[in-house]
Amino acid sequence: MIIETHALTKKYGNKTACDQINLAVEAGQVYGFLGRNGAGKSTCIKMLTGLVFPTSGSGTVLGKPLGDVSARERMGYLPELFRYQDWMTGLDLLNFHAQLVKLKNKKDQIGRALKLVGLEGQEKYKVGSYSKGMQQRIGLACALLPNPQLIFLDEPTSALDPIGRKDVRDIIVALKKEGATVFLNSHLLSEVEAVCDSVTFIHKGTVVKSARMDELLMNKISLTIRVKGMTEDLLGTMHNQYQSLQILADGSLTATLKDYEEIPALAAKLISHGLTLYELTPHRETLETVFMQLVGEEGLSSQQS
Ligand SMILES: Nc1ncnc2c1ncn2[C@@H]1O[C@H](COP(=O)(O)OP(=O)(O)OP(=O)(O)O)[C@@H](O)[C@H]1O
Fold this sequence. Notes:
The strands form three sheets. A six-stranded mixed β-sheet has the order 6-7-8-3-9-10, sandwiched between helices. Strands 2-1-4-5 form a four-stranded antiparallel β-sheet, with helices on one face. It has helices at residues 41-48, 69-72, 90-100, 106-117, 132-144, 162-177, 189-195, 213-218, 232-238, 263-272, 287-295, and strands at 3-12, 15-25, 30-34, 56-61, 64-65, 75-78, 150-154, 181-185, 198-203, 206-212, 221-228, 246-247, 253-257, 276-284. It has two domains: 3-216, 3-Layer(aba) Sandwich (Rossmann fold), CATH 3.40.50.300; 220-284, Alpha-Beta Plaits (2-Layer Sandwich). By secondary structure, it is an alpha/beta fold. The site of adenosine-5'-triphosphate has 14 residues, from strand 2 and helix 1. The site of adenosine-5'-triphosphate (ATP) has 14 residues, from strand 2 and helix 1.
């Protein structure tokens, strides 16, 4: 495992930002780390990158204990809401970061990073004159400068337009092809769904689920069903065979099946019980529906930042 944590916990005063987090991230993956605002994602990334000390618990990153400097040399980190010196040019900034990480082949690595993020030719301009998207790209270039084995990206596409987001997705895929591991924190679930191999959901500082993306999304089909004549008694009878069947507030039914092939049998069953079937709509499970089920059950008032 390239990242492994055991009961990793961070408290800020009385506030528990991360509570007993257990993670196991395989090398070579794109790993999604998902949760609502204030769930504890950035705090967890900061503990993994050695920027914040855990209150308790332990972990290893790149085979070294959390905070180890030699492991940090092989990591890249794009923080959320970073801000660089406006008066520096893109090239100054990259040179500065290259000095910080003591890069030997500075010129080549800077050229590589600029090419990777699509900022070639723009490095001579001041960071203050960059658009938000360009600022995000220069931040990404800084993170990728030392050609890291493990890259933490905290909301890397938040300032980007749809084309910029697609570019970042392509960069992530390219990094994975080169053998790097990407730890991605993003609220853009369709993006996470497109690039991640595995995901962990965190809610109020606690891990609520970790799974491979294919296992998470391929297993189930949810159905919305409009029928006339359903009663609570009949629902109880049908639960023997269809445990997931439920009546929604608007009177329609919902059910989850493992396979498309089970749909005709369910339709036949409903009709055999004397119900009038108007509509039966299958939905493929998306990361968004899973996210809503796992961490979206409460109102906006529970958001903490
Ligand atoms: N330095 C700090 N001091 C005190 N509380 C903090 C500090 N950093 C984070 N917190 C609190 O810890 C909790 C988790 O915050 P964190 O930034 O890790 O969440 P997040 O999932 O990254 O949120 P977002 O998606 O909004 O960035 C929040 O309640 C936040 O207010």
